[in-house]
Every structure is written in structure tokens, then in C-alpha cells.
Amino acid sequence: MYENIPAPDQILDALDPEQRDVATALTGPVCVLAGAGTGKTRAITHRIAYGVRTGTYVPASVLAVTFTARAAGEMRTRLRDLGVAGVQARTFHAAALKQLSYFWPKVIGGAPPRIMEHKAQAVTEAARRLGLEVDRTAIRDLSTEVEWAKVSMITPDTYEQATQTLERPAPAGFDHRTTARLLTAYEEVKELRSVIDFEDVLLLLGGMLQDNRAMAQEVRNQYRRFVVDEYQDVSPLQQFVLDQWLGDRREICVVGDPSQTIYSFTGATPYHLLSFSERYKDAQTIRLVRDYRSTPQIVELANDLLKRAPKNTSFPILELISQKPTGKKVTHTTYSDDAAEASSIASRIRRKIAAGTKAQDIAILYRTNAQSQTFENALADAGVSYVVRGGERFFARKDVRDALVLLRGAVRTADAAEALTDQVIHTLMNMGWTLKPPAGQGASRDRWDALNSLVELAREVEEKHNATLIEFIADLDERARNQHAPTIDGVTLASLHAAKGLEWDVVFLAGLSEGLMPISLAETQEAQAEERRLLYVGITRARNELEMSYSMSRSGSATSRRSVSRFLQGSWPHNGPI
């Protein structure tokens, strides 16, 4: 599958001057400040590939960590395309879980505790023990607070003082003292059930590495070089584990953008990125500002949004420079109500698809998940296929699992002379897949879209690697393990948080009114600054076209008039609503 492995010089030839600086900075501490669309993944994967191809790196000694299974899968795919095998690219949790599973029997003895998939049951039991009345919403809020405390390395004993210092409000309906008691009860419930949560995976591993010198040395002998993507979103707990992996060594490359810090509410902090050059006085700092994703019009809007931030709440700005030809003007539309906004966007999308734009290259982005349903209804009425990001996992779908079973069975009778894509098509036709999609929306279309994505992935793998059916199934198995789903041809519906790390040709940024952007809950300057960065992330998801909109009321009522987001006042045209 790897007939065209590039030579070291060819790896560098594919990069711009700043990306090349990243790729050739092979030793010592390196900090890459990479703006949106500047090719950071390209730069760091080429850095790893260049290090391997020049003999500077032993592949198995490199550990690259990021924050989502999708990003880790993308990194592995790019390294494979560069002919590099053996490098570990994983999420923090996946890397930690692998090590914890290996060392637990040796260091602690026996099998490691079972990991809870969800905190809700344990939180509910903890609340019951304390005599607290809780509903589903309260359980969700308390679960979030438990997670925040743990990734922030705040214990039940230090919770009250820490939240006062940080001016963090307690979950609605509870005070800080009660929440601290619940944190204690939650840990007791887990201990009684002999289970751990996902944060415990990091806490336990970090503690074991800190306390067991032989174990730490074994890990450090294995992993000698580290790459950390999205470093602006690292939590204190993740930094603690990273410190244990590193020991007193300095072979670390971090990549991030302070202007894309949008997860502070979960415990993520840009502190470690912003202070990297203080921790490592001789660190190389390289800035990537050439934007290959978005048109000059979109980049100008994104830059302007950050420049207008209050100085006391702004992070260092990477002013982007678009590398694309001039494009369409960014549009600003005011609608009378939410239904009119959704209906108009759905109609515009239908026309764009009819004119040749692929549905998968279009997205509607919004601030809260509750806004999704209105757009789902409008797209369904318009006969437009869509995918809600954050819904059922692709490889958990029954039709996808059934397809994998049939594909494995087809290996035994496969004709070696038949092309991979044809083999996949013939196999999936036995499940009822057809060359053309069924009319309308619903479960049948959802099923067709999922199976069709397997056909398109087979075509892509065949073109790139001339893969066999066995190799294709191995690729699918790896994707399933890491939840690296193929693309389904439907318009993407996603919250701004869920859109992080993704991009589309056409983006509709909807619901840009006060109370939604910034969200009404963002009462402090820091929270409002993060909302601005969240809007920046939304703007920079668009490659070629960006359409921004808000509605003046929820349902046409004159008594609940909305105004445009404060972040856009002064730049929004004051035309009448549609």
C-alpha cells in the first residue's frame, strides 16, 4: 500500500516557509502558534515524517496526543499517506487507558476497575445519600461540575475555596458546600461499586507514574518525543499526565491557537500554551498565519472580530493572511422569526445543492443544541438530507455493523481481479443498497447515506493505496476503534462547539442575536470573551461562502424583540427583516 514513499526533501517541498520551519525543528521544545486554516496538522505530521525519514526519530518512540478520536485518526491517516508507520497518535484518554491497562496488573495487581460510561447513575446515588432532590437537568449539571473539578485537579476538600477564588458559580439550585459534599459522596459511590470514571484514568495513571519510578522509567524509555495538538485546550489534569510522561526531558512540540480557546467551562485552559516560552526559555516559537482555508472576505471578518475585543480580555492575536483568491461577500440577513430564518436557509441550501454544491460541503452552525430541531424540520420539509453532529456514532449503527459482517464474509469469495470499490458495491447491494438514493427523507435515506459513505470511502482508499478488501476492512476496524467515521453526504447541523476542527465550503451561521451570541449565561468579562472566540471559530469554519443571520423574535411576537449580537453591532446592515 505504500509504493510512493516520499524522500525527506520531498516532504519539505510540500510545505510553505513557516510550515517548513516546523518540520525541520526536530529537537528541543517547540511551540507552534497556528491560526485557523493555516495547515497545523499538515505541519506537525510532516515534522514527524521528516524526523522519521531522516533517521532522527524512531517511529515507536513518538507519541502524538490530541483531543478527539477524529483528530487522532486524521493524524494517523496522514502519517500513513506519508509512508510512516509505528507512530502512536491517540487522544489523551486513549493513550492513558492503554498504559493503565498494561501497568495495573503489574503495579497494583488484578484487572483494572471497570470504567463507567456515564456519571449520571453514580451522581444520582450520591445525591440520594445526601437527601438532595434532583431531576434530570440537575443530574446533568452536577455531573458536569464533577468532571470540571476532577480535570481541574480540585478535590472535595479544596472545592469551596477554589470556586470562590475562581468566581465559579455552583450548579443551579445548589451552594458550593452542598456540591463539595456531593463530590465526596460521588467518590464513595464509585468505590462501593468498584468502578472508575474517565477522569480517573488520567488521575490514576498520573499518580502511578509519579509514585513508581520503575514504571515511569519504562514509559519514558518507550516514548521519548511528544507532540500535543490543540494545546490551548489542555486541562490541569492532562498537563499533569504529560509532565509525568516527560519527566525532566524537553523533547516536546505543542501546537495551538489562543483565539480558539472555547472549552474553559470544562476545565481547559490556555495558560500552558501562553506560558510555554516561560517554562522553556530556549523554546522555538513558530507562527503559522497563512490561511489556506478561507477567502479574504471571511478572513478579514474573523480578524476584525478579534481586533475589536476589549484589550483586558484578549489573548495574543494571530492575524491571518488569506492565501485564496477573492471570494463572495459575507452576507448578513435579518429575519422576522426563527421559522422564517430556518425556512429561508433550507431553501437557499436546496438551491445550492441543485447548482452543484455537495450537501456534505454545507453546514448550519448555531450556539445551542436546542436550536437544531427548527433547522431539522426546515431541511426535511425542503427535501434536503442532513446529519446532526453529535448524534448516534457511525460505527454503532446496526446497518453499519451488518455491513462490516458482510464485507468480512466477502473476503472468502472475493475475486482478486475485481476492484475494491466494485467488491464493496456488490456486497452492499445484498443489503439493499442502490446506486441512487431513495426519494425523500427518513430512516431509509439515513441507512442509504451510511452505506454509501462506505462505498465512497472504498473508492478513496482504492485511489490512494490500491488497497485490497482485507486491507480496507482493517482500515474500517481501526476507524471503528477510534470513532473516525467516514463522511456522510448530508448537510451538517452542529453547535459551534461541535464544529471545532471541521470546515465546509458553505457555512450558515444562524441565531446571531443577543442572548444566544453571547449566550445569556455569559455574565463575566471572561465568559463573554470566550463567546467571542466561539463566534471566531464559527466564522473560520467557512472556506468559500459565509452567510450570517439572526431573527428578531422567536415566533413573530412583537413583545420579545431581539437585537443583533453585540459582537456584530456596527458591522450589521440595518435592513428590515425578511
How is this fold's topology laid out?
Elements: H1 8-13, H2 17-24, E1 30-34, H3 40-53, E2 62-66, H4 69-81, E3 88-91, H5 92-107, E4 114-115, H6 120-129, H7 136-151, H8 159-166, H9 176-193, E5 195-196, H10 198-211, H11 213-222, E6 225-228, H12 236-246, E7 252-256, H13 271-274, H14 276-279, E8 284-288, E9 290-291, H15 296-307, E10 321-322, E11 331-335, H16 338-354, E12 362-366, H17 372-381, E13 386-388, H18 398-410, H19 420-429, H20 443-465, H21 469-482, E14 491-495, E15 504-509, H22 525-539, E16 542-551
Parallel strand pairs: 1-7, 1-8, 2-3, 2-6, 4-5, 6-7, 9-10, 11-16, 12-14, 12-15, 13-14, 15-16
Largest sheet: 6 strands, parallel
Low-confidence stretches: none
| Biggest sheet, spatial arrangement of strands | 3-2-6-7-1-8
Shape: globular
Distance between the termini: 54 Å
Number of helices: 22
**In total, how many beta strands?**
16
- Work out the helicity level: 40-55%
Please report which band the strand proportion falls in: under 5%, 5-15%, 15-25%, 25-35%, 35-45% or over 45%: 5-15%
Structural class category: alpha/beta
What is the residue-mean pLDDT, rounded to a whole number? 90
Rounded to an integer in angstroms, the radius of gyration calculated over CA atoms is 25 Å
Word description of this protein:
The strands form four sheets. The chain has a six-stranded parallel sheet, sandwiched between helices. The chain has a six-stranded parallel sheet with strand order 11-16-15-12-14-13. A two-stranded parallel sheet has the order 4-5. The protein is built from 22 helices and 16 strands. By secondary structure, it is of the alpha/beta class. The protein has helices at residues 8-13, 17-24, 40-53, 69-81, 92-107, 120-129, 136-151, 159-166, 176-193, 198-211, 213-222, 236-246, 271-274, 276-279, 296-307, 338-354, 372-381, 398-410, 420-429, 443-465, 469-482, 525-539, and strands at 30-34, 62-66, 88-91, 114-115, 195-196, 225-228, 252-256, 284-288, 290-291, 321-322, 331-335, 362-366, 386-388, 491-495, 504-509, 542-551. The model has no long low-confidence stretch (mean pLDDT 90). The longest helix has 23 residues, at 443-465. The protein is 46% helix and 12% strand.
